Amino acid sequence: MVSNKSLAALFEPGSVAVIGASATPGKIGNIIVSNLLDAGYTGKIYPVNPDPGEILGLPVTQDVADLPEGLDLAVIAIPPAAVVEVMKDLAARKVKAVAIITAGFREVGREGYYLEEEIAKIARDNDIALLGPNCLGLIATDSDLNASFATGYPESGHIAFFSQSGALCVSILDWALGNNIGFSKFISLGNKAVLDESHMLDYLAEDGQTNVILGYIEGVSDGKRFMESASAMTMKKPVVMIKSGTTASGAKAASSHTGAIAGSDQAYDAAFRQTGVIRVHDVASLFNLATCFSTQPLPKGPNLAIITNSGGPGILAADATEKSGLNLSSLTARTSKALREFLPAYASLYNPIDIIGDASAERYARTLEVVAKDELVHAILVLLSPTASAQIKETAQAVIEIAEKLDKPVFACFMGDKVVGPGKRMLQDASIPVYSFPEPAIAGIEAMYEYHERRNRPAPAELCIRRDIEAARTVIADARERNALEIVEFQAQGLLNSYGLPVPKTELARTSQQAVEAAERIGYPVVLKIASPQISHKSDVGGVRVNLQDSSEVVAAFMDITSRAQRLRKDAFISGCLVQSMAASGSREVIVGFKRDDQFGPLIIFGLGGVYVEVLKDISARLAPLTLDDAKQMIREIKSFPVLRGVRGEQPVNFAALEEIILIMAQLALDFPEIDEAEFNPVLVNPDGAVVADVRVILAPQEKAAENGDA
Amino acid sequence: MVSNKSLAALFEPGSVAVIGASATPGKIGNIIVSNLLDAGYTGKIYPVNPDPGEILGLPVTQDVADLPEGLDLAVIAIPPAAVVEVMKDLAARKVKAVAIITAGFREVGREGYYLEEEIAKIARDNDIALLGPNCLGLIATDSDLNASFATGYPESGHIAFFSQSGALCVSILDWALGNNIGFSKFISLGNKAVLDESHMLDYLAEDGQTNVILGYIEGVSDGKRFMESASAMTMKKPVVMIKSGTTASGAKAASSHTGAIAGSDQAYDAAFRQTGVIRVHDVASLFNLATCFSTQPLPKGPNLAIITNSGGPGILAADATEKSGLNLSSLTARTSKALREFLPAYASLYNPIDIIGDASAERYARTLEVVAKDELVHAILVLLSPTASAQIKETAQAVIEIAEKLDKPVFACFMGDKVVGPGKRMLQDASIPVYSFPEPAIAGIEAMYEYHERRNRPAPAELCIRRDIEAARTVIADARERNALEIVEFQAQGLLNSYGLPVPKTELARTSQQAVEAAERIGYPVVLKIASPQISHKSDVGGVRVNLQDSSEVVAAFMDITSRAQRLRKDAFISGCLVQSMAASGSREVIVGFKRDDQFGPLIIFGLGGVYVEVLKDISARLAPLTLDDAKQMIREIKSFPVLRGVRGEQPVNFAALEEIILIMAQLALDFPEIDEAEFNPVLVNPDGAVVADVRVILAPQEKAAENGDA
Q: Domain ATP-grasp spans what residues (chains A, B) (predicted)?
């Protein structure tokens, strides 16, 4: 654990030592001292170097042991082999935080890995907030702290940024310098030996200077902690992140459909969505959203009004709006009436509100004032094309003055660059996001609206799934005893029953005579399925026969199924056949499954059965535990949802029954870490209810089951 | 028709008259003259105004009649009511081209519409190339011509731009001025009374100064001409266009599935795709592609090599590549060997090739030289993060020197802005597209690769569809005689037969006895379908019964179907039932249909039947006439294609049979303009072949049928 006190020492140190400080310009140990001085750091700086003298005017401390006890921050830039000893010395001096710039650890192989583990242990044992190793350092503008070897120091601002890639830190810092983007904190995480993205989220949630957080990660260090930190964080401040390496995933061999479909990138998608982290896929979007969130109030609904002095650009903005999750707002009759009073006859009073090419700043101002009062409108985009009569600076000034009195977000798109430039700079300086073309403005407003929606969702109700865990445990223990890694349908009935899952009437028949008796108890028509612990892909051996109408058909099917299975699978012990009631006609097939993600635990998936899942990959996914809302969304967000809602006058299926099954699947996954994958496939659902018509459960090997339990 | 001579006069005029020239600064008639002078136009300029004297130092011509005969270009900026008379006078003086800046025509209502029609007629009758009205004018940098009232004059360049929106012209010009984008021609089309996008494409195809064409349109004036002009154009030069108003379409009521699904935006998509026009959806993409196409050679394949000095940015670029239609290129053993000789041990020799943070310009140069020689590599992206040791300008210089000797495209991404700025400017000046972040670079290379692929596709073979048009015409004439606007299945058999379409064995039975006889000829099992000219949605009245096994089932079904239809549809005349052979089990249902688009003619669609089309809107579309390639692509580009290719070891369906049916549908649409919509639904296809199992044909009302014929 890293205490808050240590983290505070990292970001707001009263004094900083630079281990490996150098008098030679260009050396990293020199750049760091010089960066500290240039940023105007007012705390005490201790350059540490075995050679006596001065470095950049500061007296050198020759030994770590000579540093004052309880020093806040030490920055280390010495060869990797020497770092362990220095860490021990720093711990002895009760240093609170350390940033290790030095590379040559985990990233270079086995030896480096062990070095890093040793360093991390020293840090953890002594409550040292350890940043890195193999990082650029950190910048905290409100402490005037540049404890990095980066070139350039950003303006102060309200955006915090952390990155797992040092190169991306350098690039983004350089880009920000050219684009006047300010930062509160700028952090290079490096190898994340101790401090990782979760610590940053925890700390920045409480940081008064930060109001939006950006992150670049290639993976999280600890899925569960990330979920907790991110969930807490996003209720306070928006978090926007890039997770790279999206495409090289999910290629692992898997034994269920769920396993084949649900990749690690889907787990990240689910983790971000469930915690409210906004995921973007490129750096431009990252900073677009940062600007939007850090400057404008959140829209309280999806309705956007567009005010424009030209048709074509208005259409472009309307197109982008229609493609987004926003609506082109309607206007109240009162608004239309008020606009009609002063707008010219050719103006369009519908949204986009076209106030025509000769619109003066005053016409923009009056229109904006009227539209902003409309309670149907949640956000406003002011579009200006540099027509001959456009009053660019005056319009910018009018927008600024009106917007600052509003609690609705106002965005501007001044189409162009050179002539509109002065107006754009005025808007930018006044914290109104301004664009050359409309599309990124719409993307920004959409993200802000979604964030607002999520933050205002009522807290989910506590769910209680009734189940008989002991009975379920027996089923799994039986499989373990047989050394089986798979529990097939006829063995899984006990598991399904112990979770109260709806199943078709089912009996195991060991002879054709038993099958007929069972069919008579169940009622015709029935289904027969091969029952063998070794046969999980039943249709591959012709092991399923449906719609059997009478005893003669049942007898024939029993003989056929069992003899064929014996012939095709000489390895298999045939227990007989399962006799099952037929699903009501008109039922839809869906799949409910889960796969245990290495990082985030059980990833629950839902989709329509058959080719929808296999060919179209039309599935939804969430990480357990699930809320009822999660289950509802999972059903509704698949593309083929209309099939469940009913097309051409069909009745909708029983959604509540499906939601229940999804929630039970999540509970099962949480209850039994020793299950690696499970799948109800198909679940048959119709307007009356749903039944789990087949099931497969894949157990983890013994040694992995223990790990799953820890995760 | 507009002759080439007149078009040439518009773009390269030897002399220009400005009708409505004014001495008052700020007036449009003054700005135009001033713009002509400022751009350094060397031809003669005639300001025309009733008041004598000078305008900006040029002697005023008081009457159009006093202009020299055969003048090249007149720019008109006088009130709309006066334009018709001036046009007549200009025609009398044999003026070759006219740009009407004046607004107040078609866009303001009926009166303006008639004025515009009159002006257009004068232009057409006298071979005057008429631009506008209601436009900004035009710029042709190689003629030093600024015949517009735009603010600012762009640099000379190789990009031509035309736009239907004047405001977008102004905005883009302003943006280009701020971003050093040069233009060959810059054209505001306005109301397109005579000259439209097709004329521009025709002219610019031959324009020596232009090597890439950009356009913004809200619609085309003439679909057929556009298809011809664009097809010819894109074989010579790349065309990139925005068509706006994408979302407000296709809402028309329609009587077939095809009609309900195929909107006008899909017709535009098809038109662009079939002609090779690259469609983008925002202005940023428009200019990104313009820069790529106008500076670098086309990649001859999809394989991209990425050279980077940092991991994180390399992953971002690899992610973007994997999501695109490009591949991360493999490298030959020779390349790997050559790289290993000089790259440091930690360098990654796999793509992205990571030459590590301390890479010098020389290391970049050697790597680029080796990789460029690899025959597996078709395009190269050089990524640079501004690490402490990055040699930014030197690396830019090295890339420039190597790239100019290559016939492979080289793109650069210098991550950042301030420090990397000088390097970026060097690359930009040397015509190497350079970016702050990798994603738009990948998008540019992808578009260039696709363009290369398309242009090098072999010319399609001529198709000949055998058919008996006279027999088909009889079927339609019969319907016309009955005043019917729909031809239902049992009446359409003659139509299907005359096109040689494969159909199930089908007979019309008027009595149950005839039905049994027919079933016996056809062979059991059979399908019975209600036959009534008034009933097109047969299932709605329970009018279809499948899998009838014997005569008693046929008799019962016949009685049931016909009596139910009589009861439910008292208006319907019941002809009896169709008796049809059953499709082989395991057949897939697909839909082939067409809908006549107002602008582009028959839009052919293809999709899997049932919910695939209705719910998932998973269809492909092309405009007739189709090539065999078009038909092949239509089948293969739907998302559910794997269902047809076969999943889990199934045989693929008979694609050739499907292609044939699609091509016949296109031919039918071309042969009979009086058909508005038609649909084969379902077509049943299996590995052996395909049959058209149901059909519906919607006729155009008589008056519209004539129009369709002209289109």
A: 493-706
A647: chain B residues, CB-CB within 8 Å: 611, 614-615
> By the CB < 8 Å criterion, does B701 face chain A?
no
State the CATH number of the domain containing residue B612. Answer: 3.30.470.20
Residues 621-650 of B with CB under 8 A from A: 639-640, 642-643, 647-648
B616 neighbourhood in chain A, CB within 8 Å:
616, 618, 639-640
A125 and A98 in one domain?
A: yes
- Nearest-Cα residue of chain B relative to residue A416: B175
Query: Is a pLDDT exceeding 90 seen at residue A459?
Result: no
Looking at the fold, whether A627 and A557 belong to one and the same domain comes out as no
| The last residue of a domain, from among A421, A455, A489 | A455
A630: containing domain: 588-710
CB contact under 8 A, A418 and B28: no
Instruction: Tell me the chain B residues in contact with residue A171 when contact means C-beta distances shorter than 8 Å.
Output: 310, 313, 385-386, 415-416, 420
Two tokens, residue B3: 């002759």
Contact A589, A608 (CB under 8 A): yes
Contact A247 B639 (CB under 8 A): no
Alpha helices per DSSP H over A463-569 = 469-481, 489-498, 512-522, 551-568
| Domain count along chain A | 4
**Shared domain check, B190 and B140:** yes
pTM score of the predicted model: 0.89
Which of B513, B512, B526 is CA-nearest to residue B579?
B526
Among B670, B667, B663, which Cα is nearest to B709's? B670
Asked, for residue B677, whether it belongs to a domain, the answer is yes
> What is the tens place of the pLDDT at every residue in A29-59?
999 999 999 999 999 999 999 999 999 999 9
Question: Do both A336 and A414 map to the same domain?
Answer: yes
**Pair A608, A559 in one domain:** no
Which residues in A lie closer than 8 A to residue B647 (C-beta atoms)?
611, 614-615
Q: Chain A, 383-442: which have a CB under 8 Å from a chain B CB?
A: 385-388, 415-421, 436-437, 439
Q: Cβ contact (<8 Å) for A218 and B313? A: no
Which CATH number is A562's domain given? 3.30.1490.20
**Structural contact between residues A299 and A452, judged by C-beta atoms closer than 8 angstroms:** yes
The answer as to whether B333 is a domain residue is yes
As for the ipTM of the complex, it is 0.86
Tell me chain B's radius of gyration from C-alpha atoms.
32
Percentages of chain A per state (helix, strand, coil), in multiples of 5? 40, 20, 35
Residues A521 and A643 in one domain: no
**Is residue B287 situated within a structural domain?**
no
Same domain, B543 and B617: no
**Residue A251 has what pLDDT?**
35
Q: Are A695 and A680 in contact (CB under 8 A)?
A: yes
Question: CB of B510 within 8 A of CB of B492?
Answer: no
- On chain B, the residues whose CB falls within 8 A of the CB of A22 are none
Question: Which residues from A are below 8 Å from B101, CB to CB?
Answer: none
d(CA A515, CA A521): 10
* pLDDT 10s digits, B576-621: 999 999 877 778 899 999 999 988 999 999 999 876 777 778 899 9
Strand segments (E) across B93-181: 97-100, 129-131, 137-140, 145-148, 155-163
User: Which of B218, B245, B312 faces A168 most closely, judged by CB atoms?
Assistant: B312
Q: Per the domain annotation, does B394 fall within a domain?
A: yes
Whose CA is closest to B487, among B682, B674, B614? B674
Domain boundary among A210, A244, A276: A210
Give per-residue burial for B532-549: e unless 16+ CB within 10 Å, then b: bbebbebeebebbbeebe
Nearest CA in chain B to A310: B167
Per-residue pLDDT reduced to its tens digit, B487-543: 888 788 889 999 999 999 999 999 999 999 999 999 999 999 999 988 878 888 888
